[in-house]
Amino acid sequence: MATIAIDPRVSGTTAEFISQRHKMYIDGRFVAAASGKNFPVFNPATGDVITEVPEAEEEDVNRAVLAARRAFDEGPWPRMSPSERGRMIWKLADLLEQHLEEFAEIESLDNGKPRTIARVADVPLAVDMFRYMAGWATKISGKTLPLSSGYDFHSYTMREPIGVVAQIIPWNFPLLMAAWKLAPAMACGCTIVLKLAEQTPLSGIRLAQLIDEAGFPPGVVNVLTGFGEGAGAPLAAHDLVDKVAFTGSTEVGKLIVKAAAGNLKKVSLELGGKSPAIVFPDAPIEQAVSGTASAIFFNHGQCCCAGSRLYVHEKVFDKVVEGVSKVAADIKLAPGLDPSCQMGPLVSDEQYRKVVGYIESGINEGAKIAAGGPVSGFDRGYFVRPTVLTNTNPRMKVVQEEIFGPVVCAVPFSDQEIDRIVKRANDTVYGLAASVWTQNLSLAHKVARGLRAGTVWVNCHNVFDASLPFGGYKQSGWGREMGEEVLHNYTEVKAVTVAL
User: Fold this and answer.
1) Among 270, 341, 402, 409, the one annotated catalytic
2) How is domain 276-465 classified at the architecture level of CATH?
3) What is the pLDDT of residues 257-290, one digit of tens each?
4) Quick check: is 304 catalytic?
5) Which of 45, 180, 259, 355 to pair with 413, CA 20 to 30 A apart?
6) Is 270 labeled as catalytic in the residue annotation?
7) Burial (Cβ within 10 Å: 0-12, 13-18, ≥19) of residue 189
């Protein structure tokens, strides 16, 4: 095992967990990789190795899928009463809530995000997701359908669990993304193989321990740690998997689709975004400044729906840009476990280099820096200062491509362009989210209707709830997470017709 360095600010409980010899969870048991291989997990605030986890490969994937297949075809989970399934999911939520502080520390140490944010956002929202979906377990139903032909038949539909589900999650919200994936699949009666992001596997491993403690039958949930090529690719391609659910980049999403083609398994994708925030001249300036700053700087900009294109009417452009730039300059960068931290490091050295590369690209193409820039001032860790760019144009990479960091491009528009601003906002391959800032109710609805995005916020941004469907148009994905809509991801519809 590599030399490890655990931050002294973590609690004894978290330190004890981090120091364990970590294992994957397959068929109700904690196991090492078949090859015996492990790989290091890094603290993004320092670059130090904090622990090691097993490196799953094809043999491990096959063991996990076979366990999930047996659990679905022969085990009690799909045949359990919906009420009992709901109670087990609720029990998991209770256990997670009991360990809130520990999970907040694990997320902060592993991902870099402020512990204070994980404590009030990531962990409580994950708890809410499990509880919300626990309630849906008893409410998944079909319909009775009168036949248009009028003949004497009784017809109805049923919604049945889709089967074995492969779920692959990203590193930006490790625990929350696990909850978004697991909870609805559990409620529907599916069995699951969950592949954690290699950068941030620790909260998923700890969650697997709670799943075991809650008493889920063996094989219902299997949790793998590994890389995309070694574990994610064979999982997506596996012939005994009925459905794959992926959250991550659009580039990898396209590879998932190709891998799933072998047995034509169902696919849902929650992918990238380049979300616009549109500020009209009548918007309350303070609210617009704080809201659009939060839209891009929340979670270090490592959000698929981050408001990374800021369109502001020229009458208030200078005020808004000045305000957002001041917010950026005042944000306290520090390790996530530091009580004063308002923004931690990016998740990895690879992500750090990517984001800095985009900032430098923007500068080289003529963009001006209103705040931030490529130099962080930190000797260690993957810190990037919140950055505001002006003087951009639609052809620049920073305007067209997803940066996935705390970088926003501010662009003015005029009265003559108000009717065309929706077209400009839609001028991207993505369509995940957008926000509109105005006091004109009619204008807000008109713009919301015209935006090609799965979520439109008015006078707010990054508002999530377990009841709200979330997903994208265009290359931002297929299907929806959360709400009643997500149940369609994990069920098949069967039509039954009886001659009377």
Assistant:
1) 270
2) 3-Layer(aba) Sandwich (3.40)
3) 999 999 999 999 999 999 999 999 999 999 999 9
4) yes
5) 355
6) yes
7) buried
